[in-house]
């Protein structure tokens, strides 16, 4: 049995950045007042002076062309609306999410499902592929604290395949890819490959793991291996 | 549980190999994990000085192992 999930530590790290857009009302007020303590009257007077300088002659000739009608403007606005609508939702999301984490952003694509399937409480997209995920990976430390032997080890992953082995085999294993590139793994000496997307995790239960081979197609990554015997 | 870690030269030996060897050497059951450049034993009881020395010698011979 294998579960996929986001690396919760990474997710929390990115969500913590949301606090950067938090601003108190007093900060906002101070920003308006400025160092010279502008009053609302100052702002009103400034606006008055701006409106006084707006003259029809200052507008482009297109705007004052007597042959142009409001229908022309409406038509152009419609065209603009259609152009905006053709921009994919994902592009808009990425633009917004770029302010939060660096690189590829997948946070905005995780949604909580209706719970009709207990194993798919959250649905999300990792590296372009849609997955059903449990909202958080099992906390092996908490589950088995003080009981059976528990291990946690970070290993470097390069384009050359390396491996870790365990004896006796691990009864439950959690693999978290802490890097920015996908990691390919092979379990128990098999040739079938499985992928752990960047900042994704794979929890393996009811399948004893005696060896894990890992590599990346380019660059490097770090794989966190947790498990208990 | 006594945890003993060694930095080793990668020889292609698996955790299973190390566990069987050490069980024969010391007669103690243990959990073993092997990663690139590292082997870690988790013994079910503390090792005495003699047992630890035997283990050090074996790891030195088989894979240039240095206890961490």
Q: How much helicity do the residues of chain A have?
A: 25-40%
Order of helices and strands of chain A: EHHHHHHEEEHEEEEEE
User: How would you sum up the global shape of chain B?
Assistant: globular
| Neighbour order of strands in the largest sheet of chain B | 2-3-1-4
**What is the C-alpha radius of gyration of chain A, as a whole number of Å?**
28 Å
Key attributes of the depicted protein:
heterodimer, A: 229 residues, alpha+beta, Jelly Rolls, 2 domains, 7-stranded antiparallel sheet, 3-stranded antiparallel sheet, B: 68 residues, Alpha-Beta Plaits, 2 helices, 4 strands
Short description:
With 229 residues, chain A is of the alpha+beta class.
Explain what the structure shows.
The complex is a heterodimer of chains A (229) and B (68). With 229 residues, chain A is α+β, with helices and mostly antiparallel strands. Chain A has 2 domains: 2-6 and 136-228, Sandwich (Jelly Rolls), CATH 2.60.120.10; 23-97, no CATH class. Chain A is built from 7 helices and 10 strands. Chain A has helices at residues 8-16, 25-33, 40-53, 61-64, 70-85, 89-97, 140-144; strands at residues 2-6, 111-112, 122-126, 129-133, 150-157, 162-177, 183-187, 193-196, 200-215, 221-228. In chain A, strands 1, 5, 6, 7, 8, 9 and 10 form a 7-stranded antiparallel sheet that branches. Chain A has a 3-stranded antiparallel sheet with strand order 2-3-4, with no helix packed on it. Mean pLDDT of chain A is 76; it is low at 93-98. Chain B has helices at residues 15-26, 49-63; strands spanning 2-7, 30-35, 38-43, 66-67. In chain B, strands 2-3-1-4 form a 4-stranded antiparallel sheet, with helices on one face. The longest helix of chain B is centred in the last third of the chain and has 15 residues, at 49-63. Chain B is globular and about 25 Å long. Chain B starts with a strand and ends with a strand. The chains are: A alpha+beta (229), B alpha+beta (68). The A-B interface holds A 149, 151, 153, 155-156, 162-168, 210-211, 225, 229 and B 1, 14-16, 18-20, 31-36, 38, 40, 42.
């Amino acid at each position: 049995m294998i579960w996929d999930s986001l690396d919760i530590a990474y997710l929390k790290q990115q969500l913590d950045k949301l606090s950067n857009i938090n601003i108190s009302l007093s900060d906002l007020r101070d920003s308006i007042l400025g160092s010279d303590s502008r009053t609302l009257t100052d702002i009103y007077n400034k606006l008055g002076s701006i409106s006084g300088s707006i003259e029809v002659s200052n507008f482009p000739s297109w705007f004052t062309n007597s042959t142009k009608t409001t229908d022309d403007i409406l038509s152009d606005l419609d065209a603009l609306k259609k152009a905006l609508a053709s921009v994919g939702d994902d592009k808009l999301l990425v633009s917004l999410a770029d302010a939060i984490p660096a690189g590829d952003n997948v946070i905005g694509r995780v949604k909580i499902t209706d719970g009709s399937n207990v194993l798919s409480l959250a649905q999300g997209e990792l590296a372009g592929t849609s997955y059903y995920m449990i909202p958080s990976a099992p906390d092996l430390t908490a589950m088995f604290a003080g009981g059976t032997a528990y291990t946690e080890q970070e290993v470097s992953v390069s384009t050359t395949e390396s491996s870790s082995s365990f004896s006796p085999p691990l009864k439950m294993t959690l693999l978290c890819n802490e890097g920015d590139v996908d990691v390919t793994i092979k379990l128990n000496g098999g040739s079938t490959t499985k992928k752990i997307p960047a900042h994704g995790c794979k929890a393996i239960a009811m399948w004893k793991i005696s060896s894990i081979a890992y590599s990346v197609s380019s660059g490097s990554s770090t794989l966190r291996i947790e498990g208990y015997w | 549980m006594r945890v003993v870690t060694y930095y080793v030269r990668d020889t292609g030996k698996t955790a299973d190999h190390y566990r069987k060897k050490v069980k024969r050497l010391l007669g103690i059951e243990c959990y073993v994990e092997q990663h690139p450049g590292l082997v870690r034993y988790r013994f079910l009881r503390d090792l005495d000085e003699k047992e630890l020395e035997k283990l050090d010698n074996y790891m030195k011979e088989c894979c240039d192992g240095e206890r961490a």
